[in-house]
UniProtKB/TrEMBL annotation:
<comment type="similarity">
    <text>Belongs to the polysaccharide monooxygenase AA9 family.</text>
</comment>
<dbReference type="Pfam" id="PF03443">
    <property type="entry name" value="AA9"/>
</dbReference>
<dbReference type="GO" id="GO:0005576">
    <property type="term" value="C:extracellular region"/>
</dbReference>
<keyword id="KW-0560">Oxidoreductase</keyword>
<keyword id="KW-0732">Signal</keyword>
<protein>
    <recommendedName>
        <fullName>lytic cellulose monooxygenase (C4-dehydrogenating)</fullName>
        <ecNumber>1.14.99.56</ecNumber>
    </recommendedName>
</protein>
<dbReference type="GO" id="GO:0004497">
    <property type="term" value="F:monooxygenase activity"/>
</dbReference>
<keyword id="KW-0624">Polysaccharide degradation</keyword>
<dbReference type="GO" id="GO:0046872">
    <property type="term" value="F:metal ion binding"/>
</dbReference>
<keyword id="KW-0119">Carbohydrate metabolism</keyword>
<dbReference type="GO" id="GO:0030245">
    <property type="term" value="P:cellulose catabolic process"/>
</dbReference>
<keyword id="KW-0186">Copper</keyword>
<keyword id="KW-0964">Secreted</keyword>
<keyword id="KW-0503">Monooxygenase</keyword>
<keyword id="KW-0136">Cellulose degradation</keyword>
<feature type="domain" description="Auxiliary Activity family 9 catalytic">
    <location>
        <begin position="20"/>
        <end position="231"/>
    </location>
</feature>
<dbReference type="InterPro" id="IPR049892">
    <property type="entry name" value="AA9"/>
</dbReference>
């Protein structure tokens, strides 16, 4: 590359003022999806790497402009390995770094199922954390330092029990270098992913794992005001947000449903002949006369404009490739060659992957009923996987605190007369002591029943009211006591 004095000066200027980071590129099972493809990224290049500093802003969900969907949603099977690439310069124009070494802090990945990728808001309730890592005492490194070691690449596995559907997947970095001065700096973006799982029933996320973004972390909390400069560090450092929830399929074989929902929106069209982020180029109509030639030339240039207009800060390299095709058609028309379009080989360009793609850390799982055959193959108690699960990064493991539902043993038989005597105001038998759930929780020690609640009439294994099969089916029924009870 040839540098002019001006570009070197600009690079030095940018380097001194902007050493932040931005999520630009998604990999699925080590396959590069292309810069910006399926990624919600800030639109403005000059500020795309800037941190999110207002913890109450809706931008906390998917970053600046993160409320706006992108055209493409990438398909991935549940359990797939996802890798997120972070860059100091979105288009690599001034270097290939991932984040300034001063930006020490934790990382996390959150997901949220959305019924409609185009219209369901990113900001708000429904997020849960599938992985996090703070300070690794053994290695003496913050997660962001490991990210730098991995050239800006961060890998996680999608939980194996994610249901089929559309998901926003949100990698988050938190730079704590100014946290003690009240200025924590978050970096978050979102990938749009269509997950293929073994069930279409929405996941039953335990209430203590489900959070709103913004809202899951607030100004002044210990996780965002931690002083990383004191020696020794005042460990342990508590990562913002809820405990990790990694729903996994039962280990016994589960028969997958025969009919599964297919991705209906956001797929990359099969007749896409060149892609730049979330733009696709399509072959222009063939022609045999002058009018047709110029019409197709125009169609090519129109697509070129759309390409540049839609290009995110990660770049427009393939718009430039497309431009050459249009120039070829235009030149042919000018040369009165009206049989076309001319054969032109589009050579897509792709930024080099910055280094070896790291493996994903093992995360302790919570077994959930994830498929149609689950009822026959798994005991319905919510179970935490064996503690012998190999742990790659010790600090990344947060044992999900899911209270196992109480399986109701045989109730002592109470005669009608003594029951009536004990609870004279009871309108009906055993459910008398329960109140209708006002917050969607049920069973256990809540004393609440779902019956008649606005959240649905069934109490799930994890103590949530609902109407889906996960709440009502799989052998679980609402007992008279309002607890999830195995149907024998
Ligand atoms: Cu910064």
């Amino acid at each position: 590359m040839r540098y002019t004095t001006a570009t070197i000066g600009l690079a030095a200027f940018l380097g001194s003022t902007s050493a932040h980071t931005v999520f630009t590129t998604l990999f699925i099972n080590d396959q590069n999806q292309g810069d910006g493809t399926c990624v919600r990224m800030p639109k403005q290049g000059s500020t795309s790497t800037y941190p999110l500093e207002d913890l109450s802003s809706p931008d906390m969900a998917c970053g600046r402009d993160g409320a706006t969907p992108v055209a493409f949603t990438c398909p991935a099977d549940a359990g797939s390995k996802l890798t997120f690439e972070f860059r100091e310069y979105a288009d690599l124009a001034y270097g290939t770094g991932s984040i300034d070494p001063s930006h020490k802090g934790p990382c996390a990945v959150y997901v949220k199922q959305v019924s409609d990728m185009a219209t369901t808001p990113a900001a708000g309730a429904g997020w849960f954390k599938i992985w996090d890592e703070g300070y690794d005492e053994a290695a003496g490194k913050w997660c962001t330092e490991k990210l730098i070691d991995n050239n800006g690449l961060l890998s996680v596995n999608l939980p194996s029990a994610l249901p089929t559907g559309y998901f926003l997947v949100r990698p988050e970095l938190l730079a704590l270098h100014n946290a003690d001065k009240g200025d924590p700096q978050f970096y978050a973006g979102c990938a749009q992913v269509f997950v293929s799982g073994t069930t279409e029933e929405p996941l039953d996320v335990p209430a203590n794992n489900s959070v709103s973004i913004p809202g899951y972390v607030g100004k002044g909390e210990p996780s965002v005001s931690f002083n990383i400069w004191t020696q020794p560090l005042a460990l342990p450092y508590a990562i913002p947000g809820p405990e990790v929830f990694n729903p996994v399929l039962p280990q016994s074989p589960v028969q997958a449903k025969v009919v599964q929902a297919k991705q209906t929106t956001g797929a990359i069209p099969s007749d896409c002949i060149l892609k730049n982020a979330n733009w696709c180029g399509f072959e222009v109509p063939s022609y045999t006369d002058e009018d047709g030639c110029w019409a197709s030339s125009q169609k090519c240039w129109d697509q070129n404009s759309n390409c540049y207009d839609s290009a995110p800060p990660s770049g427009s390299a393939n718009c430039k490739v497309w431009e050459a095709k249009c120039k070829g058609i235009q030149d042919a028309c000018a040369a009165k060659n009206f049989q076309g379009p001319p054969v032109y080989e589009l050579k897509a360009v792709e930024a080099a992957v910055p280094g070896a793609i790291p493996g994903a850390a093992e995360v302790k799982g919570t077994e959930v009923q994830g498929g149609a055959g689950a009822a026959e193959t798994v005991a319905p108690a919510v179970d935490v996987q064996s503690s012998t699960t190999p742990v790659v990064v010790a600090t990344s493991v947060a044992a999900p605190s899911v209270a196992a539902p109480s399986v109701v043993a045989a109730e002592p038989s109470v005669s009608a007369t003594t029951e009536a005597a004990a609870q004279p105001t009871a309108p009906t038998g055993g459910a008398a002591a329960l109140v209708i759930s006002q917050d969607g929780l049920c069973g256990g020690t809540t004393g609440q029943t779902c019956e008649g609640s606005e959240f649905g009439g069934c109490c799930s294994a994890s103590g949530h009211c609902g109407t889906t099969k996960l709440h009502c089916g799989c052998g679980w029924q609402l007992s008279k006591q309002g607890r999830g009870e195995m149907e024998l």
